[in-house]
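User: Hi! Is it possible to get a structure for several chains at once, not just one? Here's what I have:
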Amino acid sequence: MARNVSTQRKLLTTAAAWTIGILIFFPILWTFLTSFKTEAQAIASPPAFLFFDWTVENYFEVQSRSDYFKHFMNSVVISFGSTLLGLLIAIPSAWAMAFAPAKRTKDVLMWMLSTKMMPPVGVLVPLYLMFRNTGLLDTRTGLVMVLTLINLPIIIWMLYTYFKEIPGEILEAARMDGASLAKEIIYVLTPMAIPGIASTLLLNVILAWNEAFWTLNLSAARAAPLTAFIASYSSPEGLFYAKLSAASTMAIAPILILGWFSQKQLVRGLTFGAVK
Amino acid sequence: MNLRTFLLGTCSAVALAGLAQAETLTIATVNNGDMIRMQKLTDDFTSKNPDIQLEWVTLEENVLRQRVTTDIATKGGQYDIMTIGTYEVPIWAKQGWLLPLDNLGPDYDVDDLLPAIRSGLTVDGKLYAAPFYGESSMVMYRKDLFEKAGLTMPEAPTWDFIAEAARKITDKDNEIYGICLRGKAGWGENMAFLTATANSFGARWFDENWQPQFDQPEWKKTLDFYVKLMNDAGPPGASSNGFNENLSLFQTGKCGMWIDATVAASFVTNPKESTVADKVGFALAPDTGLGKRGNWLWAWSLAIPAGSQKADAAQKFIAWATGKDYLKLVAEQEGWANVPPGTRTSLYENPEYQKAAPFAKATLESINSADPKNPAVKPVPYVGVQFVAIPEFQGLGTAVGQQFSAALAGQMSVDQALASAQQLTTREMTRAGYIK
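Assistant: Yes, the chains can be modeled jointly so their relative placement is included. Here is the combined structure:
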């Protein structure tokens, strides 16, 4: 039942929500604006907010200097590839943990999460050697594998919590009707968990898209995704803010647009199970 | 042999020959103006060497350093040519990680390389990396502000003069600060400046037995001078300023002087970026009369990892990129002012270059006066002017830099900063086995 709220209070909360929203969005907006400035305007103090000579020069410069499309395709393959592969492994394991828990299931879940607590640089050299020996350095296959493993704990945890919300009786009913395990997962569980799976997919695509440690360290010229594309525009000696902003805008644009289109799905998934 | 087998055989032979011919060099490099310009000019190289193709990996300096170090230490073989600095070359060459460059061709003229730069890239008499561009540090100052204050900058100023001038020029109400210096913690940030400055005050990192020297009066003098000067005449928040922050302060007219990399000269005199482009003068880095100036020496250089399968092609490319003809090529295409500085004597003898680059003389003198093998007033056991070429220095330099940055910010006193620098350096050097 809706509470009785005064207009004044509504105005206040709306204003607060907008302020917080703009505050969070501001860095992205600023990056976007800076990408249309010249390098001199980008460092000008006090900075110009909207009234400067807008120029697209930086975008041309970035385009002529590096192959955006190649990096973009690498990013797409790596982020979607790793997420889909991750889901393929995670759906059965989350099913097992949610519907057929064993004595140690909780411990296994904690253990999986604990692998996320280790700083990645700690295993850089061993992993680099393994990649070198198997010829996986600077390949998209190698990066898909690493990012799958990195994100797997999160995928399993998210799916596990969604699956827990689904009444086991429905699956039991399917079993009574003679559905095999595969059919039970594919035709009964998955359709019911679609919002949860979709938001897991989206969140992990975003995480993989932005992953900068492994993608930078295990790639060179061929498999480098957009993170490497951005890193090539930063420099400790020399002005680069405008070009860096243009490169960043180009790198985040695809994922931002994807996020906008799937916003509804994402929010629904994240609050899935909040109301029973 | 029937026709089909013959054709198949021929095809595969041609394909194999094609594979063997097209050799691809992967080159790891940093993002700076000169390197980016080179990437645009490589058509000249590939048209002369149609059998070699080039692939570039451009990364931010610190990312690049981590990336190529991992690769070379594990013999990953991802890069055929690496862009590394004067810090890495002596360490890596001693580890046997680099190939000596002994096949650069008859036209290369190794003796034309600036002696100070060449010395920093040579280990046991062999050149292990070829300099692509070199830099030192110098004083950049505002001629108009000096005139207004009735000051004349000598060609080779002392630290006392710099301090006096900085305090005189400072006009905090109008946001004009006498001097802008690095304060951001990092072995390549504030410690590059402070180590070079300490050399001119007679200080050194280690004595001949690798004993840290932060408890000596020379270091106290250096740090005292720096902190007091910056408090009186520096911009607010200087402890978080690095090269780029100071560059933008200077370009927007807020600094009377700035002591930093010679490469900055081309930025501050560029009217497209700088509001003070026509008002900048240059002078040598200051001294205290002890025989060493407070300038550093750095060269971004091209090197080949040991075990490379494409060493011949890589040497060909390095000879092209760091040769005399490349300088001419850049001059033809982009003008003399854009030629990568600081590598060859012949460039500084070229009258056209002298005309196009008003900072040429100051740059050359700064580079020539730095001696990486003999950087301090007292003898030292290490190589390097603004760094100590040992693997532990990156971590050490940054840790000490944090203490000094905190002293500048006023979070601790100069004495406290020096005491903790001494303590942590002694601990690390003992652990690493230098101090027995």
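Chain A is about 70% helix and 0% strand. The domain at 66-232 of chain A is CATH 1.10.3720.10 (MetI-like fold).

User: Great, thank you!
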